[in-house]
Write a structure and sequence with these properties.
With 186 residues, the protein is an alpha+beta fold. It contains 5 helices and 7 strands; from the N terminus they run E-H-H-E-E-E-H-E-H-E-E-H. Strand 3 and strand 4 form a beta hairpin. The longest helix has 24 residues.
């Protein structure tokens, strides 16, 4: 489900045994729980959305835990619209994909393909679970690319919509009250 932007399987690597890494991971898990709680509290009180959010929360958290940062910088317009980049395939110019890039630092966001030097764009620090949730909200979004290493914008971790939706759909089907399979994600 999570692959490098260059197509290789991409599980982020860390230096194991590092006390700083262990402490950061523990703090990130607490932060991820808080991020999920904010998403749940912001869900519409329509009797369905909150229940569905509760059902998919463990999957959102599990995906977020595989990424290296609990917060990334995402480019947004002045009216808080998320900036998507459309990529086309060199071999198949008619094949296009809409991507949102998530950067580990503000400097990286400024060095990305969509520069924050544009006065109409801002790089906003955004919780990782909220970025993942945007995959559901933005129907035209095909992938999220998370750049993990500050200063390296050549390789990132890609999360593709079809795999992401399949995971969430499976989680909904397993959750109590959604065993009939009629609930759809995205």
């Amino acid at each position: 489900m999570i692959t490098s932007a260059d197509g290789a399987n991409g599980t982020p690597t860390q230096q194991s045994g590092s006390p700083a890494w262990v402490e950061e991971r523990i703090q990130a898990m607490d932060t991820l729980d808080q991020q999920i709680q904010v998403l749940l509290e912001g869900a519409p009180n329509d009797g369905v959305t909150g229940t569905a959010m509760t059902a998919i929360a463990p999957t959102l958290k599990a995906i977020a835990e595989r990424l290296q940062h609990s917060e990334y910088y995402v480019l947004q317009t002045l009216d808080q619209g998320w900036v998507m980049t459309t990529l086309s395939n060199r071999r198949e110019p008619n094949v296009r994909r809409n991507i949102i890039y998530a950067y580990p630092t503000l400097a990286d966001a400024g060095a990305g393909p969509q520069s924050v030097k544009d006065p109409q764009l801002m790089a906003i620090p955004t919780p990782v679970t909220h970025i993942l949730f945007q995959m559901l909200a933005l129907k035209s979004l095909d992938s999220l690319i998370f750049f993990e290493t500050p200063g390296n914008l050549k390789q990132g971790v890609e999360i593709r919509r079809p795999e992401f939706q399949a995971l969430l759909q499976a989680q909904l089907k397993e959750a109590q009250g959604y065993s009939d399979g009629d609930v759809a994600i995205g």
